[in-house]
Amino acid sequence: MIKIYDDRYKEEVINLILHVQNVEYNVGISAEEQPDILDIESNYLNNGGNFWVGLNDQGEVVGSIGLQKKTNQVAVLKKFFVYKNYRGKEIGIGASLYEVLFDFAKKQGFTKIILDTPSKATRSHSFYKKVGFKEIDKEDLPIQYDYPDRNSLIFELDLSKGAC
Q1: Domain count, the chain
Q2: Which of 71, 77, 101, 150 has CA 20 to 30 A from 48's CA?
Q3: What is the reported pLDDT for 149?
Q4: Distance from chain centroid for Cα 48
Q5: Would you tell me how many other CB atoms lie within 10 Å of the CB of residue 30?
Q6: Pairwise CA distance, residues 116 & 34, whole Å
Q7: Range of the structural domain that residue 88 is part of
Q8: Are the C-beta atoms of 160 and 111 separated by less than 8 Å?
Q9: Which pTM does this prediction carry?
Q10: 3-state secondary structure of 3
């Protein structure tokens, strides 16, 4: 089940993000290095973006995805994480989270979604390419924004071309 974030999910979301980043991918990033996860309402919900959680049958957070509005045209996909045991087509948590974000972005009138992802996260790269994202050089970013992992790859989706 996909729900819009509220603060009752805060601790579970932080635990999910830090687990995937640091246990699964060994990126070595603290919560303090990504302050957006410490105040999701201010960083996503209150400025024209959104943040969703994927819940298992027990109501526990097993996935997350956020969209930060940067300009009227450009948004940043952030914090797209799913616990390993909940990944894959059979379960569909990741695809459902992405679909909700994509529909929201189109309705808001964004023309580009950009994202950064650790270079180690090759499974993520495959997903992004499959849904229409193209890898771009950091110098080609349409806006500047902070991302904690300097070894990240940058991807961009042109929504004006009707991809999904």
Answers
A1: 1
A2: 150
A3: 59
A4: 15
A5: 10
A6: 13
A7: 2-161
A8: yes
A9: 0.93
A10: strand
